[in-house]
Amino acid sequence: MKKFIFFFKNYCYISGSMLLFSLIDLLLWIISLYCVGLVFWILFVLQCIYFVWWLWKNIFYQLNSFGLVNFVWDNPLSVIIGKLGTGKTLLLTYLSQTMKLLTDEIYSNYPLEDDKVKVLTFKNLDFTDRTKPVPPDDSVILFDESYLYIDGTSPHDEKKVHSGKIPWIVLARHFGNRALFTAQREGMIWNNIRQLASGIIIPISLKKPVIKKGFNFFNRFFIMQIGIFQDITDYEIWKTKSVERTAEGKRVKHKSDVGLGIRFFKIIIPLEFANKYDSQWLKFVRDLKNDEIVNKKEYYWSEITKLSVKERLELFDIDILKKNLKPKKEKGNGKDD
Question: Residue 145 and residue 184: Cα distance in Å, rounded?
């Protein structure tokens, strides 16, 4: 039943993304009712071409959605790597909805407007912690901004602090957990996770809905192209070759290779999924700092000339200048004049 509901919803999303073309096809059909001869057959052929295109696209996107769900389910550890704005959190949120096809145990470390998604922190995965439990069998764990929790650029230092997470990382598949971690660079992900990850997901491009007055009904979908790799080494090789082709002025190839476990495909993400999370939910951290500041006076640059040199130096807070321009203590004379 879940698969049928998922298929039907996906069908509606995909059909909705092509609604404008469907209206054009309907218009052609209405016109053809009043035409005869060559014009009728031309319109008939155009309708047939549209129908074949619509059917192929619908099947194409349906298979891609099912393929992504199965890929995540088959890999206990996956990482999503992409620069700022490529849609990493959007993809996690999309999976928070589509993975319900296989399980009801969904956890995330960032807020989602979904009553079925549970809160998770890094302590849930720490075996030295005795306050929060490890998620049960068949759980999907969505972990955004992993760099905020573990500094992947300092693996040796982090290993001392986060050694309690290693048992979970190694035994995730035995626990029936499926986890996804995001980062802007592969080097930002902790080495213990990166090397054991059997799923590498790369958001390559993201076509956002264009918000225009009167056309919002036709622009309620994101189209994301992603690449999936089964090993970090395969991804690094592909990335190196892509950089070389770009440097030579050539187009980067997004060609799937089933033998190497490399696939590229597109998925449609409804705008309603994107509205389930706040991309700036961590802005409360700013308030933690600002609430402790007593003097919150701000200056305009036009007011700087009214300050003394010493006040300017204190205001700009340039440590090197403050250190070197600090008045030296005068040495006292050894004997009276």
Answer: 8
Residue with tokens 């999309």: 94
As given in the structure block, the two tokens for residue 180 are 């996804």
pLDDT tens figures, 203-251: 999 988 776 655 555 567 888 999 999 888 888 888 888 877 777 777 7
**SS3 annotation, 271-310:** HHHHCCCCCCHHHHHHHHHHCCCCCCCCCCHHHHHHCCHH
Region of residue 203 (phi > 0: left; psi between -120 and 50: alpha; otherwise: beta): beta
What value does the mean pLDDT take over residues 166-175? 92
- Fill in the DSSP letter of residue 134: P
Segment 185-191 shows an average pLDDT of: 83
Residues 121, 132 contacting (CB under 8 angstroms): yes
Residues near 76 by beta carbon (within 8 Å), at least 6 away in sequence: 172, 173, 177, 178, 179, 198
Specify the pTM: 0.79
Domain boundaries, the chain: 1-70, 75-284, 287-324
Backbone torsions φ then ψ of 332, nearest 5 degrees? -75, 150
CATH number of 75-284, picked from 3.90.1150.10, 3.40.309.10, 3.40.50.300, 3.40.50.1000: 3.40.50.300
Q: Classify 231 as helix, strand or coil.
A: coil
Between CA 225 and CA 71 the distance in angstroms is 15
Q: Rounded to the nearest 10 degrees, how much is the dihedral formed by the CA atoms of 153, 129, 170, 82?
A: -40
Contacts of 215-221 with CB under 8 Å at 24 or more apart are: 217/19, 218/19, 218/20, 220/16, 220/270, 220/271, 220/272, 221/13, 221/16, 221/17, 221/268, 221/269, 221/270, 221/271
Any idea which residue has 């982090």 for tokens?
A: 158
Range name among 19-23, 163-167, 194-198 with the lowest pLDDT average: 19-23
DSSP string, 190-219: -HHHHHH-SEEEEEEEEE-----TTTGGG-
Give pLDDT, residue 337.
46
